[in-house]
Every structure is written in C-alpha cells, then in structure tokens.
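Objective 1.3, modelling of assemblies. Example input:
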Amino acid sequence: EPEVTQTPSHQVTQMGQEVILRCVPISNHLYFYWYRQILGQKVEFLVSFYNNEISEKSEIFDDQFSVERPDGSNFTLKIRSTKLEDSAMYFCASRTGGAETQYFGPGTRLLVL
Amino acid sequence: SQKIEQNSEALNIQEGKTATLTCNYTNYSPAYLQWYRQDPGRGPVFLLLIRENEKEKRKERLKVTFDTTLKQSLFHITASQPADSATYLCALGDVGSSNTGKLIFGQGTTLQVKP
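Predicted structure (tokens):
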C-alpha cells in the first residue's frame, strides 16, 4: 500500500541554522500539508499546498518557514533560522483531489539546541 | 473562542469491553470529522471519516457518530483488545471558507486496554 515517507527521521541542529525536512507524498495525490506536534501537545496545522502554491498557512508559518515541491515528487519544508521553540515532530500529509482523507508520514523529530 | 475537547483523562478499560471516546467542539462548523490513531513517536493513522450530513459510520469494530446540533462526535471500539491501546485523535475538516482541507486536531484521548 502506498505511503507518505519523510526524511530524516531525526534531526538535531543548532539554533540559528537552516534545516530542510523532506517528504515524498503518495504519488497520485494533489494536496500536500505540513503539521507539527510539540511534545505532549496537539497536532497543529502549518501550511497547505496545491497546484504549486500555498493555499493556506497558519500564524505559526511565518517568514522563517517556506515550502517547495521542487521536482514533482518531493515536498520540502525549510526553516531558515531555527529557534529553540521549533523543536517538535513535523508531519507531512497528502490527499487526492477527490477525497478528504489525509495520509500522514511517520514524521521528522527536530531538536534545536 | 474556538475549541475542540476530547476526553480529558486517559481511558482505561478491560479487554472485550466497548471503549467510547468523545470529541466536542465549539464555534466551528466542520464539513467533516476524522478520527486518527497515534502511537508514541509515530504519525497519525487514518481510521474513519464522517461528513456533516451523516449520522453514523462503521468499519469493522469501529463506529463513529456525528451530531452537528450537539457539536459532538462519539468514537466506539467494540470488543476492545490490548492492541487497541493508543492515543486517538479527533480532527475537524474544512472549518473555514478556504476549503483547503486543513485539519484542526483535538488533544487526543489515550486509551489503555487491559488484558
């Protein structure tokens, strides 16, 4: 069964460094999402992406964040200058055009020191 | 203010019993509601979706109801097994005018099924 994959599974970085989190959505899906989950807290929406542009973003998704679909298969989340409070699990999700169900990847655990 | 609330306490039940999890929301009008399972350190796994015009959905041992008047969904696991032990997340879909499909999650309910 097709699934969303994410790399790396864990990333440790120093405050102020740039990180890129990578996702490969399910191949026939058209809508892509990033969510994050701070330890012990709920899953929070960051951004949605469709037709090569951001369709919606949350207040969390400020100028330090960007997303890209560079090659038709990968979907990336970049954090330009990481802060301690960016430490969280980051989940990528995708869905088809005809259904609402989102399928989540296993996540990337980001730790900012 | 807008809120989604799930059972605040962890739910402990005996194997074979029915687990009932609650999701209440205020000041949202979702077009649909989804239930996910999340194991520690893992991503959410989709279980069931119910739309605003549906009252009940079933899948194997799972049943979900949706009452848009009460603004509540109930999620039932019948004949529960220790393998059902996990955190269960309620998520509201298409709550705004943008219809981008973003999901708004509750904080989850941890279910522990004892043998």
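Chain A has a mean pLDDT of 95.
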